[in-house]
Amino acid sequence: MQKPVYRIFYLSIIYLALSANIFAVDTSIGVLNIVDKNEDELSTINYKGEPYISVKDISRILSDRKPFENAARQKIVLYLSDNRVKISNLSSFIIVNGKIFQLTKHAVGKEEDIYVPAKSFFSILKNSIYPGVDYDPGKKLLSLNLINFNINSVSIEQKSNGTILRVKTSQQFSDGDISSFINSNGWFYLTVKDGLVDTSMIKKTDTKGVITKVISNQFDESAQLAFRIRTKIIGHEVYQSSDPNAIVITLRTPFKKLSSHIKELKNRWKLDTIVLDAGHGGKDGGAVGKRGAKEKNIVLDITKRVGSLIEKNSHIQVVYTREEDIFVPLWKRTQIANETNGKLFVSIHVNSNPNRNVRGFETYLLRPGKTDDAIEVASRENSAIRMEEGKSRNKYNSMTGEKLIMATMAQSMFMKESEDLAAYIQDELDPLLDSPNRGLKQAGFYVLIGASMPNVLVEAGYISNPNEERKLKSSSYRQKIAKGIYAGIMSFRKSKEQIMSDN
Description:
Number of helices: 12
Low-confidence stretches: 1-21, 257-262
CATH class of the largest domain: Alpha Beta
Strand order of the largest sheet: 9-10-3-2-1-12-11
């Protein structure tokens, strides 16, 4: 009856003896970082006469992110720069970014870690991720000539109305350090001051859509990415996203000159309906001047004056998002514009600034804000969402970064027209108003999101400036503002009708 006990005892002795032979005394591999001259060591075991390295120790040396461990499946995932390396116990296969590589011998699990054969693993790393990895088995030395790249990779997404390029970065850059242009030979260039580009990863970019080739160059003080474009680009925007870090480029492509598209365009630029939006209203008073002037009342009057001029001097139908002192949710305003088949959407506001010396007029486009001033203006105008009820209050809560970029991309077919409309309005207001022309600007105004037509937001003056508040309270001055906005709309209409007549 005792024989099974003795058998287990003897088997245990045999296993320990074999283990002692299989797992020889732990050794180490020296690590030299050639870039910063730092030295370190990698834990190893001698398995069947070959040095094996600790996967967790590799992560410590090459990554600032902890590996993912699945104890039940005996698997570890390493995050090396922008790459994923999957390693499983007792498997000779590892997966690098979805691509399978084979080790010379299988991985071995030991004490909640996994060990892999050093020579073949470093060879795979060198050929797949890190060209600057060099392992000398004789010297037991791993040399790392690795640069901390801040420009890591590129992904391309094709949309029906353009192409989105995402340049993944490890940090945020100053907007002034990012420049871009398209040359006459069909190349789009992105240059980043103080950028360090991983050229080996850029080579692996999957091209698609209008992008046929991607190349990168590292210079002393900057990095440059070049994209070969197969078709004409009518415009582009460059933004930065912080979650995750990326430089996002939207490339707008023109409509094909087919008869069906020309017919569609002619119908679009038959400006038979214009939607005018008086900002704020009801419980949302907007900005208030020192002498008590309220934004909601001033802009409602200006908006009605613009509408009256349009109806009096043309056959264009005018749709108002509000004609009285009522509260209209931001999302409802563009819904009204879309449901009435509006061809233009113009939102009218007056501005405010803690510095009461600031004055002037400006017109905004829907794009992520680039200046603190523009971001502050959008933030103030967007604060109306706090007064909305139910689910509508949460509609724009996360409308920042990537989501705002996608919203602007969805409207990219109207971007050039929005720019033209804004420019015409600014030009027509300039000679009429005794106030500084602050030009065209961009910011993430929620009220413009969703408008399926060219759209702009006009800030007709600064109610916080005592002088301009006094002017804005004057009916004659508000009429001048209305005339300028009206004239800008008509100039835009004329330019589009001319383009269509040429086709």
